[in-house]
Amino acid sequence: MQTDIDLFYETTMGMNTRLEVVMWGQSELKQQVCFNQICAALEYWERLLSRFDPTAEIYHFNSLVENEPMQLGDDLLNSFIQVIEYRQKTKGLFDVFYLSKNSETRHEKDLVDVDPVLKTIVKKSPDVQVDFGGVGKGILLARAIELLDQNEIKNAFISFGGSSIHCRGIHPKGGAWPFDFQVEQGIDTTLELYNTNLSVSGLYHGKGHIFESGEDIPKQSGKSVTIQSQNPIEAEVLSTALFIASEQQRHDILKNFEIEKVLIGSEQLVLNE
Amino acid sequence: MSNNRRDFIKTSIVAGTGLALGLSSFQSWGGVFGKKVRLAVIGTGGRGRFLMEHLLNQMSNNDTYELVAICDNYQPSMDAAKKICNKYKITPKTFDDYKKLMADAPVDGVIIATPLYQHAHITIDCLNAGIHVLCEKSMARTLSDAKAMYDASIKSGSILIIGHQRMFNKKYLNGIERIHAGEFGPVGQVKAYWHRNKDWRRPIPEGKPELERQLNWRLYKEYSAGLLTELMSHQIQVSNWAFQNTPVSVQASGGIQFWKDGREVPDNLAAIFTYADGSRCIADYMNMNRNYGVEEHIIADYATLRMETNKLQWDKPNQTVNGPMKTPVSKMVDDIKKGEKKPAAIGGASWRPETAKKTKEESIYEGQKGDGTVEELLTFVEFIKTKSAPDWMLREGYNASLWTLLTEKAIDTGKTVTCPKKYMI
After folding, report:
1. What is the pLDDT of residues B301-313, one digit of tens each?
2. Omega within 30 of 0 (cis) for the link into B253
């Protein structure tokens, strides 16, 4: 394999983390154009999904104090429909909706009504908030995959925050893209990936960040959850949901998805049991 | 505004360099003309003696100036000053009144290190008598006094500089020059603090309670604004210097929280200065915990400079002097370019606490010894010899004092305070 290939590497920031894109085997121009399109997509989705940007749609939704319908564009409408479906398929363990603290109705389940015809969403309580943090990177990766296809990029690797990965084609030196993962404190595992997506959730230096519904303290576990899937959004959803699921819940939930591989810590979960 | 400020910086750097390289020129001046710059120290308390000792210590390498008089109306301070003079084998004239000093001891320049409330009238009298003045910071106790001092210097043509020694410290000069050159991108914030863990009191001689206000003048509003004038004035000077501007407003809060011992000045306070471009200086001070100590963080787009501790930390990738910031993926790319195939060490949670970065630190500047006081004193001597000083040096001191006192007003009124036009220079 030549080392003077058209190796492209660029990085940018978005969704509070770093996006890194490696491509090779296509013209320099096409690779640059593709990266620019991915950056534009990142900006677009952040403008939709950010809870912190006052100009973002989700910021606006969270700010609403009246239970009035909010008009949605197609992308956000479809995203809401999708995450509601994922909540059902994960038995409620993955849920972008929550109630702000001090609410007496925090355990209410159906927190919003989405009307796909009128393209609206309405809160059932003014305390309803939404956080796409557990799935936003997957949504962006899905769009990036479309852009790689459109630009005929056959070999690429995208890391979004080091925990959401897409890889396709082969490594410039041939063979799969090899990665080391820390799956438990002090324990690494190596994966070799072709044409797939990966999402990792879990501990990082002992600090938890995934909250079980209704709880204020982040879920703690000594083991990460790694999901390998053709669908980067589902990889994100499941790495979060399975992190807080019991062993039985994991198996029940996985029946609703087509997943390539699940690692609990360094142990591979046997699928379709 | 910025042009003059840049000139000032250049001048300061030249002065600093001259001090390092040009001592022979001082010596030859003294040798050729047989005349030395005659200096006096007015106020030989702790700070005055500190300055005196630095002056005398440098005289072994520099015979272009001499200490001809010292003045203090508190005998223990005078006695302590005389001991220092004995150590250096000099016998300056001694006075308990600065007016007698002015009448009986011809001097070219004075160093004023009296309590703050005495700065103005002594300085103005000296300037009007053609005596050049290095006045300790902060400049004055009131806005009108500070303005009167400034005006007296302009009108008399006598040199007045305020003792903000960081302006003479090569570490600061280097860092500020690089900031102004745009090396670190625009500055967004200056975060300054000075935390101490002591009551700031001086012991009162037994049986002499009447000396309380004289010795502990820093604690009483009649004489001082406490932490504001004695500490913050230094840091707002650094902030103004970094921004090449003065604030447009200040908001502040402060009070006596811990040392409820009869003092009148806050022991715990915080201030926010807003500049015209939206950048800010956030400053806080306390007397009950010194864990944080003293620091000015100058936070720019590409780097943070910690001026007191001489540290520089780069922030953005692709802008570091040591090359781009490395991530597991960028390392993988480096491996590929070297023709190697190694696993990329990725994997981790999507979120982690946004604690302070631990990037490699480098020094802003190597080679500065001391805090700039020696350079300040020797530069003052040089200014006297040349009968000129950069305008901006006085303006820095004036504006630092101005915004220090406006901060006191913001605390006292609870309102956002701007600068009255009559005090703008």
Report:
1. 889 999 999 999 9
2. no
